[in-house]
UniProtKB/TrEMBL annotation:
Protein name from the UniProt record: Flavodoxin
Taxon lineage: Bacteria, Bacillati, Actinomycetota, Actinomycetes, Bifidobacteriales
Residue ranges annotated for the Flavodoxin-like domain, each copy included: 20-158
GO molecular function: FMN binding
Species: Bifidobacterium simiarum
InterPro entries: Flavodoxin/NO_synth (IPR008254), Flavoprotein-like_sf (IPR029039)
Pfam families: Flavodoxin_4 (PF12682)
Amino acid sequence: MTSVIVVFSRANENYEVGYVTEGNTAKVADVIAAATVAPIIEILPAEPYPTTYDGTVERVKREMEDGVEAAIAIRMHAGNDADASASADAAFAEADTVYLGYPIWCGVPPLEVDTFLRGHDWTGKTILPFITHGGSGFKETPEHIAALTGADVRPGLAVTGVVAQRDPEAVRRAVDGWLGA
């Protein structure tokens, strides 16, 4: 069984945690990567978000209202200097298990996650979602992901942003429990 971690995360000012150099969801992805040795494919917005939380919320709401399909860039974290997009494409194509990480924004995954989901073939893949949130939990995002991909979406892991940033041991325990380690 081959796996890959696909994650969207945002640094800078985050809800309830202030300014951070690594986003909440990225912190959880790092723990999953350490436990699974899976490479990380990072989804990035083609146009960076504002550094402030309020500025990001304003943009997200506007883009959601306008029905924007977010442009994305991809960065591979696999410890090599090969062409990042080719390496990400190969890692994704080989994987049968995808750990999909994203924050909950306005009750849904970021638009960049939807762009990634629509742009890939999910045939035969199992998705294990993991999220960070400020108290909302998953909402209907697993059903949303299943509808976009047709993949087998399994029960996920939800971690609050505060825990992701401030309690690495709790994140490790939660990941270990979720993975059955």
